[in-house]
UniProtKB/TrEMBL annotation:
<feature type="domain" description="C2H2-type">
    <location>
        <begin position="326"/>
        <end position="353"/>
    </location>
</feature>
<keyword id="KW-0479">Metal-binding</keyword>
<feature type="domain" description="C2H2-type">
    <location>
        <begin position="95"/>
        <end position="122"/>
    </location>
</feature>
<feature type="domain" description="C2H2-type">
    <location>
        <begin position="156"/>
        <end position="183"/>
    </location>
</feature>
<feature type="domain" description="C2H2-type">
    <location>
        <begin position="354"/>
        <end position="381"/>
    </location>
</feature>
<dbReference type="GO" id="GO:0008270">
    <property type="term" value="F:zinc ion binding"/>
</dbReference>
<dbReference type="InterPro" id="IPR013087">
    <property type="entry name" value="Znf_C2H2_type"/>
</dbReference>
<dbReference type="InterPro" id="IPR036236">
    <property type="entry name" value="Znf_C2H2_sf"/>
</dbReference>
<keyword id="KW-0862">Zinc</keyword>
<feature type="domain" description="C2H2-type">
    <location>
        <begin position="123"/>
        <end position="151"/>
    </location>
</feature>
<feature type="domain" description="C2H2-type">
    <location>
        <begin position="184"/>
        <end position="211"/>
    </location>
</feature>
<dbReference type="Pfam" id="PF13909">
    <property type="entry name" value="zf-H2C2_5"/>
</dbReference>
<protein>
    <recommendedName>
        <fullName>C2H2-type domain-containing protein</fullName>
    </recommendedName>
</protein>
<feature type="domain" description="C2H2-type">
    <location>
        <begin position="382"/>
        <end position="410"/>
    </location>
</feature>
<keyword id="KW-0677">Repeat</keyword>
<feature type="domain" description="C2H2-type">
    <location>
        <begin position="10"/>
        <end position="37"/>
    </location>
</feature>
<feature type="domain" description="C2H2-type">
    <location>
        <begin position="269"/>
        <end position="296"/>
    </location>
</feature>
């Protein structure tokens, strides 16, 4: 005999709903409490079922027709785009702190901010006054501001390689690399990417058309975010501030360099055989070659070159054999590295993708931009081993050593 509706044992205390299953009742009661435990990080979607959230996450991997004209945000729903513009790109900030002049567009941000005044933030930075309600936020803060590599929770791990992340959707996007299902592919070469914005930027290399052009100068780029950074060279906006002094910069990397130089922030890479230190591991690796004599190392049979890695020696040997695998299709230039060919082709197209956000300097090489940026940050990583002379450029150090200390040796000899 089939049970009647009145025989359903699990009844809602707020309305006439009843059911045969306790789980169904729990999900129904959410309608009254509004407490949906599983929330999407990309939009306002929330649900009572984890499986529903996982299914929903797929929509963020698909093409999103409603795109923001002011940043790279895009969405499947027009309403979400309207909400995004209101929260991110309007000047109105209705939520104001009653203890300082802080204001924000989102109430949740104000709640987090107030913990700085009340001291209620359970996770606090040991190096500054920053506090947060989330452990992951503190870990990111320490890494970005104080260069402290406190492990960030990365519980989502790839089963094919060592990649891990704190966000499930990032893992899903990463796995496409292994499956070969790259959604955005170039129709003129073999380039493929997981993001449409990256493909748009890549297409500039083929078309030469810059979708984002500056009205104040001749700067153009294929990336909206690069364009936003460039505009700061005209507006003078410096949104990134050092947490230890009043220094401000238009780029976050300049704040990090400032903190490394002025506040000695970070964990430098140290040589085990001498006092040499560096903030970049690759610089330390190059330095270690100086200590390689008499140890396990790879020596060139044609010259006195010594490498710590066989792969580095293989690259070096190309200088002697002349067998360069990557060749330019517009001239006779060739290279050991595909990336060098890509940079070389900028000479033919005239594209200079690397631009200084402080003064507008442009170049086709990332290394040239790094050297140029030192004129703004004051960073002088190259130090003379004989005196206290420091410089921002390696060639200047070589000239200094040759002119000053060679002259001193000659004077001593005479």
């Amino acid at each position: 005999k089939r049970a009647r509706r009145s025989d359903k044992p699990f009844k809602c205390g707020e309305c006439s709903y009843s059911t045969f299953r306790k789980g169904d009742l729990a999900r129904h009661e959410v309608k009254h409490t509004g407490d949906l435990p599983f929330k999407c990080d990309e939009c306002s979607y929330s649900t009572v079922r984890k499986s529903d959230l996982e299914k929903h996450g797929i929509v963020h991997m698909q093409t999103k027709p409603f795109a923001c004209e002011q940043c790279e945000y895009s969405t499947l729903k027009k309403g979400e785009l309207v909400k995004h513009i209101k929260e991110k790109h309007t000047e109105e900030k209705p939520f104001t702190c009653d203890q300082c002049d802080y204001s924000t567009r989102r109430e949740s941000h104000l709640v987090s901010h107030k913990t700085r005044h009340t001291g209620d933030a359970p996770f606090k930075c040991d190096d500054c006054s920053y506090g947060t309600l989330r452990k992951a936020n503190l870990a990111r803060h320490k890494l970005r501001i104080h260069m402290d590599p406190t492990p960030v929770d990365k519980s989502f791990k790839c089963t094919e390689c060592s990649y891990s992340t704190g966000r499930k959707r990032e893992l899903a996007r990463h796995k496409l690399i292994h499956t070969g299902n790259i959604p955005y592919k170039c129709d003129q070469c073999d380039y493929g990417t997981l993001r449409k914005s990256d493909l748009d930027a890549h297409m500039v290399r083929h078309t030469g058309i810059m979708p984002f052009k500056c009205n104040e100068c001749d700067y153009g780029t294929g990336r909206r975010i690069d364009f936003k950074r460039h505009l700061r060279t005209h507006t003078g906006e410096k949104p990134f501030k050092c947490g230890m002094c009043d220094f401000r910069a238009a780029m976050k990397c300049n704040v990090l360099r400032h903190q490394q130089k002025m506040h000695k922030v970070g964990q430098p890479f140290k040589c085990e055989e001498c006092s040499y230190t560096s903030y970049r591991k690759q610089d330390l690796d190059r330095h270690k070659v100086r200590h390689a004599t008499g140890k396990v190392s790879f020596k060139c049979a044609e010259c006195n070159y010594v490498a710590l890695k066989k792969s580095d020696l293989d690259k070096h040997m190309v200088m002697h054999t002349g067998d360069l695998p990557y060749k330019c299709d517009q001239c006779n230039y060739s290279s050991m590295k595909k990336s060098e060919i890509t940079r070389h082709k900028f000479q033919h197209t005239g594209v200079k993708p690397y631009r200084c956000d402080v003064c507008g300097y442009q170049t086709a090489r990332a290394g040239d931009l790094r050297r140029h940026e030192r004129t703004h940050t004051g960073e002088k990583p190259y130090m003379c081993g004989v005196c206290d002379f420091r410089t921002a450029d390696k060639s200047t150090l070589s000239k200094h050593t040759a002119i000053i200390h060679r002259a001193n040796k000659e004077d001593g000899a005479s």
